[in-house]
Amino acid sequence: MWYECKIKxxxxxxxxxxxxxxxxxxxxxxSYTEAESRITEEMSAYISEEFKITNIKVANxxxxxxxxxxDRWFKSKVSLVxxxxxxxxxxxxxxxxxxxxxxxxxxxDNTIHAMKNTMGDYSIPAISESPIMDVFPYFSGExxxxxxxxxxxxxxxxxxxxxxxxxxxxxxEPATEEASV
Length: 181
Fold this sequence. Notes:
Helices cover about 25% and strands about 40% of the residues. With about 180 residues, it is α/β, with parallel strands linked by helices. A four-stranded mixed sheet has the order 3-1-2-8, covered by helices on one side. A hairpin with a 5-residue loop joins strand 1 (about 1-10) and strand 2.
């Protein structure tokens, strides 16, 4: 579950002046208590002075998608379209994705990429820049997850490159007679 945590702290701006600012961050946690603990731990690495957690709330993102060479987060509203056979009408269900991109056009392209394996019809009625400053996913620290965390962080920090067409190289083994019996 994703929690949006607002952090208030003193920030030095480009002119060298210090001002108090409040910024939202996203953290993956199981409860409000864990979200508070995790955001305190994560922010302690970035902020040397005092900071205050002013708010923690459940974020309404269905999925989070970091992309290479992007430094901003965008909220994409995706409407899934389903046909209701009883009433004979189309029914739309909205979900929100948080995608990383450099501008709205790239956020649209990244949303399309994130939705590429979706079987049903969908539309993207809205994309807006999110105030989210950073995202801290949960990793347990187990060996397999350390590699996953490194990939996630490398993806967040990487430089943009031209999008290439993705080929599906997935192979399936032929079914055996035992499996079909």
